[in-house]
Write a structure and sequence with these properties.
Elements: E1 2-8, H1 14-28, E2 35-41, H2 53-61, H3 78-81, E3 84-87, H4 90-99, E4 107-110, H5 126-129, H6 132-153
Parallel strand pairs: 1-2, 1-3, 3-4
The chain binds 4-nitrophenyl phosphate.
């Protein structure tokens, strides 16, 4: 199994959006037997909550399911359980290094690292910007490129 964990600060806006979008892609490509996806937050303020209303609205409009997605906090154990930990911004990467700095085994990277000539290096936080549509554009682009990268790396 190839396991991918998306990470953001609160796990209610960006990373659950990425989880839903990536899950939708792997369902459509009939890859659910070889890939699993989850998301988590650096902070624990929203543990147990469903995605933010703005994230749900974008996903509803596009008919992308977010069923069963609930906020949880990232823990050191995630480094044992996942092959890819994909963050939304530079601060997430710093925070992840503080949780576990001995991670040679797995890929820890930002989502936009997989997009060549990306418009942004980080996915802006719509919790503060209010622009969930722009976040979706970047998340969709990033997830699509990440999936291509993983397929190439694993000869799929
Ligand atoms: P996210 O956005 O990291 O994209 O889920 C945030 C959600 C909540 C908070 C911060 C960012 N918060 O401080 O509660």
């Amino acid at each position: 199994m190839i396991r991918v964990l998306f990470v953001c600060l609160g796990n209610i806006c960006r990373s659950p959006m990425a989880e839903a979008v990536f899950r939708d892609l792997i369902v459509k490509e009939k890859m659910t037997n070889i890939m699993e996806v989850d998301s988590g937050g650096i902070g624990g303020w929203h543990v147990g909550e469903m995605p933010h209303q703005g994230t749900r609205k974008v996903l509803d409009q596009l008919n992308i399911s977010y069923e069963g997605i609930k906020a949880r906090q990232v823990s050191k154990k995630d480094w044992d359980d996942f092959n890819y930990i994909i963050a939304m911004d530079d601060q997430n990467i710093k925070d992840l290094r503080n949780i576990n700095s001995q991670n040679e085994q797995i890929v820890v990277a930002k989502l936009m690292d997989f997009v060549e000539e990306a418009r942004e290096q980080e996915v802006p936080d719509p919790y503060y910007t209010g622009n969930f549509d722009y976040t979706y554009e970047l998340v969709m682009e990033g997830c699509s490129k990440l999936l291509s990268y993983i397929k190439e790396m694993h000869n799929i």
